[in-house]
Amino acid sequence: MDEQPKPPTRTMAKRLRWPALIVALLVALVVFLVRPAVLEWRDLSNRVVCANNLASFSAAWKLYTLESLPPGVSWTEWLVENGHITRKQTIYPSSGLNESNYILVTYPPEHSVDNTTVIAYEPKSNHGGEGGNFLFADGHVSFIRVPAYDELVRSLEQSAP
Asked: What is the total count of domains within the chain?
């Protein structure tokens, strides 16, 4: 005579639920703790990509001065069309845009250029309003946070020709 297995009792079902509940809570806790760090790493990697893009602009800018641009041509378009940088380098990684949103600063010819002269920068919207990368004439790129970002952009706009 074959004995049929007994159906699980109520206490057995409770015993089986607790480990699953504990595992689910541990997974939720790990996700809750790790998610902000992953998002911060993604934002940091986007800042680095932007800084590298602007550094590429710097190298191209030093090789081919803006004086050689034909009238009415965007400096980023000119650099891309002549193969000095790639189209991808002109676009913020997470923007979803198809065109550059980096901003070139123009100066009158008599303006002297030194290590504090800003050549290009990006809108602070690229980094959630926290600030943006600035490319300086000596080739270095710095991420500047708000409110210093706002002050620097305001001073650049006031000195524009």
From this structure: 1
